[in-house]
Design brief:
There is one protein chain. This protein has 10 helices and 12 strands. With 287 residues, the chain is an alpha/beta fold. The chain folds into 2 domains: 186 residues, Spore Coat Polysaccharide Biosynthesis Protein SpsA, Chain A, CATH 3.90.550; 36 residues, no CATH class. The strands form 2 sheets. It has a 7-stranded mixed sheet with strand order 3-2-1-4-9-6-10, with helices on both faces. It has a 5-stranded mixed sheet with strand order 5-11-7-8-12. Helix 2 links the parallel strand 2 and strand 3. The chain is globular and about 55 Å long. The relative contact order is 0.18.
Length: 287
């Protein structure tokens, strides 16, 4: 009998040039996560999954993260937190003189905007370190922790679904994902929704590239071997690469929702991917 396990991976910190934008940003992001992302997972009709939240080493003893861990334990949401950064290549972090100048300018601007001046020098120095070079070492530590979970030890396949810490899944998303027979490849989406948390509006979201909501299906033995893990990822560098790197199966449209809020890094309500409006009652299918 084929047995599989399902992980929903949520990168909370460690993405891009910042990793984290200070305590104000982190507090706000946790609030957004609990209000939208977490609620959409709580409402899943199929709750047979483990949430895997990844952080940087710097957050391991952070009071806000400890509070979040206690909260997830109180509501009995199966969760593991790791503090080794991202388990995949970070396409939002690039090196070279021109990217360094552009990223340095963004850091200076954002520090001034958020009045987080203590982050300025450490963030600028961090630009010299190519964190993608340490991916294999990080994976060894992360996968070692995941392998301790009993449910994963005899799984023939591991489904790992990615969602950002401020977005949502439709309440039938997990059920549909797990209904797909396991194979070595990926499950992808096309169209979805976008929700404006500031104005309580919803619209259709029509990305021109593969959106950052996908499920990669590993062999169980492959998943826990860092070298085999990276070999399977191959030339994966961004969620946009998924259809180029993997055999894919397309899932139903409108099963994910991008959330726009006042501290979003890149996505705005006027983004070119946003299409026509939809009735706000659609939000009830997510939270």
């Amino acid at each position: 009998m084929i047995k599989f396990a399902h992980i929903i991976h949520i990168p909370m910190t460690g993405v891009g040039i910042w990793g984290s934008r200070g305590d104000k940003w982190l507090r706000h992001r946790i609030e957004i996560f609990k209000k939208y992302t977490l609620q959409s997972l709580i409402k899943q009709t199929n709750r047979q999954f483990l949430i895997w939240i990844t952080f940087r080493l710097e957050e391991e003893k952070h009071p806000l993260i400890q509070e979040l861990g206690n909260y997830l334990e109180e509501i009995k949401m199966p969760t593991i937190m790791t503090f080794h950064g991202l388990p995949y290549w970070d396409d939002k972090f690039s090196q070279g003189l021109v990217p360094w100048i552009m990223n340095a300018a963004r850091i200076i601007r954002d520090c001034a905007r958020e009045k987080e001046y203590k982050l300025l020098m450490p963030s600028l120095f961090r630009l010299f370190n190519n964190k993608n070079k340490t991916l294999l070492n990080r994976l060894e530590r992360m996968l070692h922790e995941l392998k301790k979970i009993t449910a994963f030890q005899d799984a023939n396949y591991i489904y790992i679904t990615r969602i950002d810490s401020d977005d949502m899944f439709h309440h039938e998303a997990v059920a549909e994902i797990q209904a797909i027979p396991p194979f070595q490849g990926a499950l992808v989406y096309d169209k979805g929704y976008v929700y404006n948390a500031n104005t309580n509006e919803m619209a259709v979201w029509e990305p021109k590239t593969n959106p950052p909501f996908h499920t990669i299906i590993f062999l169980g033995s492959q998943f826990f071997n860092p070298i085999e893990y990276l070999r399977f990822y191959g030339n994966f560098r961004s969620h946009e690469d998924i259809p180029k790197v993997f055999q894919t199966v397309k899932l139903s449209d409108y099963r994910y929702c991008v959330v726009v809020h006042q501290k979003h890094i890149s996505t705005t309500w006027t983004h070119k991917f946003k299409d026509g409006p939809v009735v706000i009652e659609k939000l009830n299918e997510f939270i």
